[in-house]
Each structure stands twice: as C-alpha cells, then as structure tokens.
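Predict both folds.
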Amino acid sequence: MIPLLSFIAPDRLWILLVIPLLLAAYVFAARRKNRRGMRFTNTSMLDIVVPKQSQWRRHLAVALSLLSLVTLTAAFARPSTQIDVPRERATVVIVIDASQSMQATDVAPNRLAAAKAAAVEFVESIPDKYNVSVVSMAGNSSILVPPTLAHNTVENAINSIQLQDGTAIGEGIYTALRALQQAPKDPNKPDSVAPGAIVLLTDGSNTAGRAPMQAAAEARNAKVPIYTIAYGTENGYVDLDGKREPVPVDHDLMKQIAATTNGDYFAAATLEQLDRVYDNIGTEVGYEKAEREVTSRFAGYGLAFAVLAALGAISLGAKWP
C-alpha cells in the first residue's frame, strides 16, 4: 500500500507550473532545430555532425532534469506521510483480578496463576520506552507499581499478587485511571495527557464497590480504552469454607465495559488462548499513526535525478569511439 502524502507548505507547489512551460519550450526548440536540419541535402554529412544516438540521450537528459525539478520542488514544499511509530509516552495499566474466584482450577493450574504468567509475557513484549503500571483488584484495589519503564519491577509485582476477598471491578477501573494520571509528563507540554490504555483481566462478577459501568463511563470521558479479558469457563468453581461455589464468567459485563470505552473484549478459557489475547492487545496499543516529514527523502531523489541529468549532458558533449 502506497502511503498518502501531504505537504506542510503546499503553496510552494505552485512552482511546478514552471515545468510544463519548460517542457513546451524544449519541444518548440527541438522542432525548430529539426526544421533547420532539413536544409542539409547531404544526409551522410548530417549523420556525422549529429549522431543518431545523441537524440535519445538529449531527451533523457532533459527528462531527468525535469524530474529533478519536480522532486526538489516537492521537497521544498515539505512533504509528510503517516507512519506507524511507537507511542513513547504510552502507558499501559494492567489490572489483575485477585479475588477468591481466581483460585478456580478450570484454567490450569488455576485462573490467577495462568493470568499472571500471561501478563508477564505481555509485559516482556511491550517496547522498552512504554510505561507500564500494575493494579491488583479484589474487594479493594491498589496500585502495586505506578507507571514505570522498569519492566522487570512490573513483572515482579505481577508475580507477587495474592488472593483476597471480594471483587470490585468498578474500583479497579477507577484505580487504573489514577495510575494513568501518574504517567511521566512531557517537559515541553506539561499539560498534555499521555496516551494510555487499561487491560482488565477478570472473571467478571462484581460483588463490591462502585458500579463497573459508572467507572467505564469515566474512562470513556477520559478517552482511555479498556481491553477486557474474561477468562475461565462456565464450569469453574471454588471451595470456600467447605462449600463448593460455582464461579461462572460474566461475559456480558466485560463486553459492555469494552464497548463503552471503545476497547475490545476477549474471552480466554485456557492459557494458550490468553497468550493470543495479549498478542492482539500488544499490536493495538503499541503503535499509532503519526505524521512524519520526508523532505530529506525527496531531496535525495532530486539530487539523484540531477546527477543523472548531469551525466547525460556530459555524454552529449563527449566524443565516443
């Protein structure tokens, strides 16, 4: 796919109107020269004076000169195009459910262990210049690691998460939004908000705290997408106080949160599926379209055409054996 070009100084492209004028002048001069050449009756003498090979070399030299003018004018207009670049100030907040339901073994060895292992792999795949934060979510939520470039610290924090009572999904989202506010500021634009995304891993049954959809609306207003991952199976259960409690996954809630925030919803029932989910999220939050000026590239093209045109002109004046 050819990238689309735009110009920072498009008014300078008016210079290109000179090109057809030069081309018309060249055609006029060539025809006039041909008419003068018809006065020669001795064609053998004409072939000696003006060798046939000089005709195409002359046209080629002029064509290369015009191409040089076109590309140099384009460079003068400061062309730019959209490219994929890493969002160096991007912050990814990983919210991991540490409620008691996460000890269910329907995902081996259990939901929490599988989620932690996949989360560590995800952090390892994030570019080094990205800030990563970790939030542990249960009945209460806490920022284990504020946004940092020290990804090894993030991985250690993920591995340290322990099971707790309760599941407050709404509070987990609010805590993640607070973590995003702690992202490093741009010294040149201290009031600008760094791009960010929340990755929410939970089996999706809210039991405490503020409503999850209220928190999702807050994230939408802050333009922070939430990528929800509902993991586990419908047959999951835990044994609490000697009583077996079913812990099915609430897929509907996870879908609503993702849709509200312009994020994406994923379902993962096994560790392998969870790994693929993280691969998808990594590509979506990892890069953004950005305008990149490509003036030097066009200037280089113009220089190359100019050199070739000069060689063509030299060949016209050279005497070849």
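Second protein follows, with its predicted structure tokens after the sequence.
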Amino acid sequence: MITLHKSAHRGQADHGWLKSFHSFSFADYHDPARMGWGNLRVINEDRIAPGTGFGTHGHRDMEIVSYVLEGELAHRDSIGNGEAIRPGEVQRMTAGTGVRHSEFNHAPDATTHFLQIWLLPSRAGLAPGYEQRQFAAEDKRGRLRLVAAPEGSADVGDAVTLHADARLWVGLFDGDERAELALPPARKAYVFLARGTLNVNGHVLQAGDALALDRETALTLGQGDAAEVLVFDLAP
C-alpha cells in the first residue's frame, strides 16, 4: 500500500522568525490521521530568519535528527556540545533521560532551512547523547546513501548511529539518474522529497511531498530534477 501525502496538506505555522511545515501532528497542528508513521513521529521543514532561533528548551525520550538544506544551524546543549550544522551533515541527539538545547541562525542576512526529524527510541531512559557526521554530495549523487542506522547493526558503517529501529538514506537525483532499494515487506517506509521533483514508484513528487509505504517490497527512484530525497525504513 502506498499513500501520497501532498505538501499542501501539511500543517503550517508562521511565527515571523520561524516558518514551519509539519508532515505529522505537532504543536498547534493536530490531525488524528497524521500522528506519525511507524516509529517516525515528526518531520518539520523549518526556515529560521537571520539572527533568530529556538531558545533553550528541553526534550526527553526521543531520537532527534537534524538535516540542514541551506545555511547553518548553531547547536548548543546541556551535555556540552556546541556545533554548527551545515548542508551535507547529519546530527543525531538522543534526548533520553532529558537534555536541554538551543538552535540558532547567526547569519545576518541568510535563512537557515532545515529538517527536524523525531524518531521514537527503542527504549526509554537512555543516557543523553550526540553525534554529527558529514556526507559528501558525490556519495549521494544518483544513489541512496545510508546516513543513519541502528547502533550495533551490521550495516551501520560510518553512518550516524540511532537508538531506534530505523534507517535513513539520502539521495540526489537529476536527469537519467536512477536507484532501487529493496524494502522488508513486514516493515514501513517513508519517502520525503526535500526539494526538486522525483518519480518514486510511479508517483511524481514535488518538494514537500511524501509517500507512506506499508508492506511494499521495493522502491524505484528516477527522472529527477534537482531532487534531494530522504528515505526511511521504519519499525511497523
């Protein structure tokens, strides 16, 4: 089963300094039919105005992945991390028993455009943690690059480790570039197109569109136009 989620049907919030699109219920946007997919709970597409950001706030028992599309995102947290996240980098923060952090766009004249992703952890009460890695564009060109995988899994390699039963691939597609990915039929998958256009299993996606897949066995991606896509393999 494949369900198309159009960009225009996402929740929206405009706080002036922050413009956000919510793929699933979040904050003041609530849709009982869109509470997540498998153990994927949040995909927020956020744009932070220059010189503004999220003040210090707390999280618990969530795996939080940040993926920057444009600009920089300055991260600082209560467990001693202070990093700038740039395009091509993947950051994972394990909120666990509790962590406080801030996220800020220090640029005087550029918007930070990024994806905030929440995954339900495999268990509650984990120790807070942090990891950040860079993935070169050439490693994602015309293919799906594994960028996050469960800790201890055989395929984790140099991907960011997740304390969640989930994997995340990222790919860049243009023109005739094409890729396929086998899907475990007992699991769920989610495809989110961050920008451009892309044909996925016969569905033409525009930026912000997504496909929710249940008991499918394969993905075929191609006919892209400046496409950047995220693909999730998820616990059912």
